[in-house]
Fold this sequence. Notes:
Layout: H1 6-16, E1 19-21, E2 33-35, H2 37-56, E3 61-63, H3 73-78, H4 80-83, E4 85-90, E5 97-99, H5 100-108, H6 117-126, E6 143-146, E7 150-152, E8 162-164, H7 170-174, H8 177-184, E9 190-199, E10 214-224, H9 229-246, E11 254-258, E12 270-276, E13 284-293, H10 295-304, E14 310-311, E15 318-319, E16 322-329, H11 330-341, E17 342-346, E18 352-356, E19 367-371, H12 377-387, E20 393-395, H13 401-411, E21 415-419, H14 423-426, E22 428-433, E23 439-443, H15 447-454
Amino acid sequence: MQKYNFEEIVSHLKNTGYVYQGSEIYGGLSNSWDFGILGAYLKKNIKDLWWKEFIEKSPYNVGIDSAILMNPRTWEASGHLKGFSDAMVDCKACKSRFRADQLIEDATGLSAEGKTCEEMDQMIKDHAITCPKCGKQEFTNSRPFNLMFKTFIGTLEDAKSTVYLRPETCQGIFVNFNNVLRTSRKKLPFGIGQIGKSFRNEITPGNFIFRVREFEQMELEFFTYPNDDERWFEYWVEKCLDFVKRMGIKEENIRLRPHAKEELSFYSKATSDIEYAFPFTDWGEVWGIADRTDYDLKRHMEYSGEKLVYRDPQTNEVFAPYCIEPSVGVERLFLMAVCDAYDKEVLENGEERVVMHLHPALAPVKACICPLVKKLSPQAKALYEDLINDFHCEFDEAGTVGKRYRRNDAIGTPYCITYDFDSLEDNCVTIRDRDTMEQTRVKISDVKDYLKEKLVF
């Protein structure tokens, strides 16, 4: 499992430009993070790969980009206005606030999912749970706290102008079901996917970017015949698991956990989570795949008065399709990738090498072009300017070649390309592999093809 503590990995990400503290010059904002020079590229690469694999390369799926602000009736239909809440509890002694279910699970290892506030209060008493901050056993009764951010649209701040920042992207897909069906001319089975921001006013966000109030989701709603849902559920579970493995994640650090019957949401026929062994917990959910049946479409039909149905071209039967939902947070895939990639090695000369073993397709910088000495910079720069048309590369002429290699190892650059004096004669460069440190002599005219082959996902 994990070899390094979480604080060490987070420190490395901050120091190398993957993630910055949000609003840092003003003292920051609780659990707000900005993705830096490298982090922005890693996020983009994750999203681009997901979009390519789940939308562009799929004969079944199409993509949309729905609005963050939606008619508030949307959230009545989805149940978020009434039921999208966590139970929070306060320590009377130190005034610290906790999610009741997390407090119970952290202290006892027992799940409180689906329990009422009263049942969780009883569990806290029965197990004599104490405050993690001050050690006292004095808690308020737990009470529900709605997780949606509320704002106002227009010039008046009243009930009629109230809207919400969406807590999930999938509802934008459900309300556009008819639009997509009409304009895409798709036949069942088919899916609608999107990538977008979501917002949840979490009571106790934490563990760096694992649980944040502002995050990006990549969601697919895959519609199928009601009698074919189980087959497609298994298909998408395997597809998601395969994507994680292709990211280069070590197999011993991932597992698939099907939900027990008592864990399932009331609308879910089946749910499985892909979990990762993060350094801060035994296992943390990364990707959820759920069989949502026809719940969402029927709810929106009830509240909107519109028919969100499919007419079978063979039988002429009209029905609300079942829906399989693979849903994943970009930040969680990001965190899994960097936790799995971070490593330190002691070389033969006793020097310590910090290296990020990111899959080359995920790596923010694909190659760094390094002239052996500054005198060779013009020729090396010409190669760099040719490569940046196809890959995100960097040009580095500062310091010794060895130090440049170490800098690039630490940020996860898979290849360093060195232009030396021999290059002037043989028109070749040396390409150094980040993981093996092996060096290969390659003709300059073949470098682009060499990288394309290595960067395949």
